[in-house]
Amino acid sequence: MSIHAWMLTGLLFGAPPASPAPQGEAAPSPRLEKNLEITWRGNFTEAILRPNVRAFRTYEVETRLFVIDVLEREADVAILTVIKLKPDIKTTPEPLPVTKLVLARVDAKGTLALLDPTTIAEKPEKRKLLAMPVMSMEGLPTLEPSLFVALPAATLRMSQKWDTAEDKRPAVNYRFDGFDSVRGSRTLRVLVGQQTEDWEQPVPDRPAWRRGETIWLSMKQGHAVKLERTIEKRDQESGELGFRSKLVAEHVGTMRYPERFGTDRRDEILAGARFLSEFQAMLPESGRLGSEVFEQLLQRIDQHLRGHLAGDSVPYREAIMTVKRKAEAARKGHIPPEPLPPETSEPAKILVGRTLTDVTMVELVRNESLQLSKLRGRPVLLIYYQSESARTAEPVLRFAESLYKGHGSKIYILPLAIGNSDTALKQRNEWKLSIPMLAGRDVYKQHGVDSTPCFVVLDQQGIVRHLTLGWSDENAATVQSAVEKWAK
Questions:
Q1: Residue 458 has what pLDDT?
Q2: What percent of the chain has a predicted confidence (pLDDT) above 90?
Q3: What is the pTM of this model?
Q4: Which residues neighbour 421 within 8 Å (Cβ) at sequence distance 6 or greater?
Q5: Rounded distance, CA 133 to CA 149, Å?
Q6: Are residues 340 and 450 in contact, defined by beta-carbon separation less than 8 angstroms?
Q7: Angle at CA 336, nearest 5°, toward 365 and 342?
Q8: For residues 54 and 77, what is the distance between their CA atoms, to the nearest angstrom?
Q9: Domains annotated on the chain, with CATH
Q10: Highest mean pLDDT: which of 1-10, 101-110, 474-483?
Q11: d(CA 373, CA 388)
Q12: Which of 83-92, 150-159, 220-229, 407-416 has the weakest average pLDDT?
C-alpha cells in the first residue's frame, strides 16, 4: 500500500483563506475530508465543595472525530467520547467507561449542528439537522462543543470580541487573544467566558455559575489543538463556591484512512447510532412492552457483531457495546436513569438544609411499604446504590452493614437498590447481611438522584444534613463521621 494513501491531502470545504489584510489575520477554516479521523485526549476533574458535602473525581477523556461524508462546504462527522473514571480504590475492578456517540455536521465557519441519526441513511442534503444542546454546567463532558469555534468573520483583528446567544442563558463571550505555538503548530488563541449576572453578588436560592475557557485553534487545520475549561458554581444556600470542574485536552493525532478501513469505521458508527436510537425509543414504553423488545434488539446487535469481525479493532465498537450492556440491563428490568432535565432556576431536590421530598418505599425482605415521613423522630441514612454494579455494590452494602450494626439502634440505615430487586435480595443473602433492603428504582427519580452511590443523612425532622456522592475510602470516612455525629 502506498504511503501517500495514508497522508492528508489538505482538502478544504471551500476556498483556502485569503492572505491576511493589513488590519487583521485570516481566520482558519476546518480542513476535513472523507475518512479523516482526529483524536483528542485529556483529563476531567470535578469537586463538590458544599458544606457537609465532599466528592472528588478524576476522569480520562478521549474524543474522536471521524468524517463520514464531505459536502461542498460542510462535512458530516461522528464524534465519539469515551470517559473513564480513575478509581480511588485500587483493589476494585476498573469501572466501565461512559461512552457517547453523536452524529454532527461542521460547516466551513466551524459551526457544529447535530444530525438526526434516523436520517443518516438519506442523501446528505436530506439529512435532518438538530440544534446543539447547551453546555451542561455539571456532569461529564460527553459532547465537546469546542472542537471548532464559529469565528465571526474571514478576517480577525487582535482583541476582537464577539458574542453568541443561548436560550434562557447569558450570552457566551469570545475574544481573539493572539497567537501561540502548540507542539510546533501556529495557533490562534480564543478566550471564552460566560456567567450569570449574579455571580459576583449571589442571590439565595438562585443558581450562580461561571465558565472560563481557552481554545487554541490550528491556523492550518482549523480545529482545536488544545482546550482548557473551568466551570464554577456557587452553593445556593451559603453563596460560597460549591462546585468546580476542569477539563484539559490536547490534539494527539490525525489520520486519513484508506477506503477499506474507513468503511469499517463507518459501519460501526452507523450501527452504533442506529442501535442507540432504537434503544432510546423503547425506554418510554418499556413497562408496557416488557423484556421481549430488548431481547430482539440484542439479537440484532449480536448479528451485527458476528457479521463485522473487523469492527473488533475499531474504537467505535465501544458505542455498540455500551448499547448492548444497557439493553441487557433493561431486559432484566434494570432501566438506566433517565437523562438529566435541562438546567432551570429550580433548586435541586436534595439540598443540605432542606426537607427531603416524602416518598413511600418498599422494604424488600418483608415486602412492606415504608413512608419516609413516618421515620421522623430518629435520624436516617439513605444509601442510593446500583445493585448490579460490579465495582461498588458489595463494598457499599458491607459498609452499610457495619454502620447498621454499630449505630442501627439510633439511626435508620436504609440502602435503596436502583435496579433489579431480586438481585439486591440475592446479594443480601449471599453476603449474609442483616440490614433492611429497599427498592429504590422509583424513589431515586423523585429525589432527583443522578449519581450513585449517593449517601444522604436526614435529621430527626427529615431535613437533609449531609450529602456525599461517589465511593472511595475518603467518602466512606466522611459518611461514617456524619452518621456518628447525628446518631448521638
A1: 94
A2: 53
A3: 0.71
A4: 364, 387, 439, 441
A5: 15
A6: yes
A7: 125
A8: 39
A9: 3-256 (2.30.230), 259-331 (no CATH), 360-486 (3.40.30.10)
A10: 101-110
A11: 28
A12: 83-92
Partners of 62 in the beta sheet? 41, 82
Mean pLDDT value across the chain? 85
Q: In what order do the strands lie in the sheet with 129-130?
A: 129-130, 112-115, 98-107, 74-85, 55-70, 36-48, 241-256, 224-234, 209-218, 185-195, 169-182, 161-166
Cell of 292: 421481549
| Residue-wise pLDDT tens digits, 109-142 | 999 999 999 998 888 889 999 988 888 887 889 9
Summarised one tens digit per residue, pLDDT across range 442-458 is 787 778 776 778 899 99
Confidence of residue 278 (pLDDT cuts 50, 70, 90): very high
SS (H, E, C) the chain: CCHHHHCCCCCCCCCCCCCCCCCCEECCCCCCCCCEEEEEEEEEEEEECCCCCCEEEEEEEEEEEEEEEECCCEEEEEEEEEEEECCCCCCCCCCCCEEEEEEEEEECCCCEEEECHHHCCCCHHHCCEECCCCCCCCCCCCCCHHHCCCCCCCEECCCCEEEEEECCEEEEEEEEEEEEEECCEEEEEEEEEEECCCCCCCCCCCCCEEEEEEEEEECCCCCEEEEEEEEEEECCCCCCEEEEEEEEEEEEEEEECCHHHHHHHHHHHHHHHHHHHHHHHHHHHHHHHCCHHHHHHHHHHHHHHHHCHHHHHCCCHHHHHHHHHHHHHHHCCCCCCCCCCCCCCCCCCCCCCCECCCCEEEECCCCEEEEHHHHCCCCEEEEEEECCCCCCHHHHHHHHHHHHHHHCCCCEEEEEEECCHHHHHHHHHHCCCCCCCEECCCHHHHCCCCCCCEEEEECCCCEEEEEEECCCHHHHHHHHHHHHHHCC
| pLDDT reported for residue 352 | 77
Say whether pLDDT at 462 is over 80.
yes
